[in-house]
Specification:
By secondary structure, the chain is mainly α. The protein has a domain of 28 residues. It contains two helices and no strands. Helix 1 runs antiparallel to helix 2.
């Protein structure tokens, strides 16, 4: 079956050869994803179990996370996270990635 996806990296420029900004790239990826989703729903071969919007919820969420976090690292999304960085204990005295929630003993 012939593939229409090119193996050459062409994601950073549009059809006229102009470089795309990060926002334009994200918009183009989402536009293409919406086209694919519509095509997949219209051409789904199992008529007794048709695809609906719910089938694409997780994919769309992950794609939006990817486009937001990976394309806009300067926004400081990682620094806005509450708690310690991954790999450090919440109290700073352990090796785990979990926050210590053990209550203090009564006096």
């Amino acid at each position: 079956m012939p593939s229409t996806i090119s193996s050459a990296p062409q994601a950073s420029s549009d059809q006229s050869g102009r470089r795309l900004s990060r926002d334009e790239y994200a918009t183009e990826v989402m536009r293409r994803y919406q086209e694919f989703r519509l095509w997949a729903m219209q051409n789904w071969p199992v008529a007794t179990q048709p695809l609906d919007d719910a089938a694409f919820y997780a994919t769309e969420r992950e794609l939006k996370l990817l486009l937001g976090a990976r394309l806009h690292p300067q926004d400081g999304a990682e620094s806005k996270r509450p708690g310690p960085p991954p790999g450090q204990a919440g109290s700073g005295d352990g090796d785990g990635e979990f926050r210590d929630v053990t209550p203090m003993p009564w006096p």
